[in-house]
Each structure stands twice: as structure tokens, then as C-alpha cells.
Amino acid sequence: MKRMVSGIKPTGGLTLGNYIGAIKNFIDFQDEYELFVFIADLHALTTKQDRLELRKRIKDITALYIACGLDPEKTTIYIQSEIAAHSQLSYLLECHTYMGELNRMTQYKDKTGKNMTESITSSLFTYPVLMAADIILYDADFVPVGDDQKQHVELTRNIAQRFNQRHGDFFIVPEPVIPKQGARIMDLQNPLKKMSKSDDSDKGSILLLDDLNRIRNKIKSSMTDSDSEVRFDQENKPGISNLMTIYSTLASITYKEIQDKYIDKGYGVFKSDLAEIVVDAIRPIQERYNEIVKSKELDDILDAGRDKASKIAYKKIMKANNKLGLGRKR
Ligand code: TYM
Fold first, then answer.
1. Does 166 lie in the same domain as 111?
2. Ligand 1 — pocket residues by CB below 6 A?
3. pLDDT of 80 over the 90 cut
4. Which of 89, 137, 273, 307 lies in the 20 to 30 Å Cα band around 157?
């Protein structure tokens, strides 16, 4: 069975973008692949975090993974920081990564802007190397992610290849798996910007734990262009095209079918229907989340996940140390 690894960073409430671009696909893949899914809490520290808030988010993501349909019998679910080998391997990989490569990462450039200020942490710069470690530590064949993480997986491939060239075949060179549709769900108020996690649940992002009426309102008040034709045209009609993508992925129907269904009906009817489709997808997730978020079951799942993942990770990091001549000969 081929292996897949992916993770989500607990920096805010999970969004519909995280669900459509990542989690929904994990669920589809878990029967076919050996799936490892973690909570990337170390990655959250690249920006300032409140410790209690962070703890809560780690639990929330775990509960949401299960509530969305990840089955702990099939999928190994764990917390990144509970497995020391992630950080250890990250350092070894930093010794095989060039500053120029990290400088080219668009996410880093977007986050720092043009001005390099004192307050930008060096971990924000080296973050993609930790991500590479998360992946190749487990000899993953595939990495299911949304579009914004593609460049990081490509860097991971380069680092793995470089290590293999220098030291002989050691890491599997992983491939990104990007969904054909829904790989970049856009902000509802600014369809030129990616929908992203936020603490204050702003109007452009739908959070999986938002109140259902708030979700309806966010969809109904989303930004669309001034004509009223429901037609997919990413370039000229980015707002409606984004909503059509959400509709299409959640209701499993094509753009053409949506277009035909709403011919002459206008945006109002379309948005009302979409609001119900989104609410119908999220309601059962929230119900299940509420049942399990405080249960002991979550800790049991995380313990089992940590035990399984750490065995694999420990073996690999020991071999990597050995390969590089670190420590004593074993
Ligand atoms: P993160 O936490 O920002 O996002 C988690 C996953 O959700 C996808 N995603 C989206 N997909 C579609 N539309 C959107 N608007 C949207 N926003 C986010 C992301 O592409 C991602 O798949 N660095 C990663 C976490 C990570 C990781 C890893 C992933 C750390 N180590 C190893 C894979 C493998 C991140 O910050 O994702």
C-alpha cells in the first residue's frame, strides 16, 4: 500500500477551504492508502500564539478530523510536536537546503512582504524545511494538499533528491496530490484572495465551527459581480466561479449542470441553495464534533497515533544520523 502524509496548522479555526482542499480528500484516500495525518503544531509557532488557545485548537483539529470522517482504525492521527524526530530531521535537512531556495517560497514572500522587519522569525523562513521533514520522515509516496502548498512539496522533492544524490538512495521522493477542483477556495469578500483561517471569523471565511445561520449569511452576502448570470468564468467572474466551485465539490455536480439549473434564476436563488448545501455538509460535522471534543476517545486516538508514528520516525532518524556519520557507529 502506498503511503500518504499530510497535516494542518492550528493557527485558527478550520475553514471550508481546509475541508474542500484537504480534509475531504483525506477521507476519500483513507481506504486506498496508508494515511498519516497530523496536527502541525510546531508550524503554528512561526507566528505568536497564545498557549491555551493553541492547546484548544490542537484538540479542535483532532476532533474535526474525526468528525469529518477520518477513521482512526485506518488513519494514523498524531500531533507533530509529540514526535521529536520531526525537528531533528528538519535540522539535518536544513544542512541540505539553500538560502536561495527558501527565498523563493511565495508563501514566505507573501507573509513578510517587501520589508524584512525585526519581528519576522527565522522559523518562518525555514518552515518549508520542517514541512519537508514531516513528509520524508515517513517515506511518504504522496502528499495530498491544496494548491498553496504545492511549492513546498516541490521543495521537499528537491531536498530529498539532493540528500539521495549526496548520500545514496535514502528518502522516497514524494509527489503532491492536488485536487482537480477546490484546490484553492477563495475568500467570500475578496475572491482574488485565498480563504484562510482567522481568529475572528471574518465575513470572507466560512469556519467549520461557525454558527449555521452565520454561514448562511456569509454566503448570501458574498461578493459577486454586477451581472446576474450563474456562469463559470474564473477570470471575469471570480466571485460566482468560487461559489460554483464550492457548490460543485459539495453537491458532486458539474459546472455545466449548475449553470443549466440556474439559467435565468439569478444570484439570489443560487446563493440560497448554496447556503443550504454548505449547511447540510457542515451540520453533521458539528454534531459529531460536539459529541467527541471533550471525550477521552480523542486522547486514546492521539496516543495510538503517536505510538505508531514515532516507531517509524525513530527508526528513520537513527538511520539518517548514521548515514551522515553523526554519533558513534552502530
Ligand atoms: P494549512 O494549515 O495552511 O492548510 C491545511 C491544508 O488546507 C489546504 N488549504 C486550502 N485548500 C483549498 N482552499 C483554501 N482556501 C485552502 N486553505 C488551506 C492547504 O493547502 C493544506 O493542504 N504547511 C501546511 C501544513 C503542513 C503540511 C506538512 C502539509 C505542515 N507540514 C506536511 C502537508 C505535509 C499548512 O500550513 O497548511
1. yes
2. 5-9, 17-18, 20-22, 40, 43, 131, 134-135, 143, 145-146, 148-149, 183-185, 194-196
3. yes
4. 307
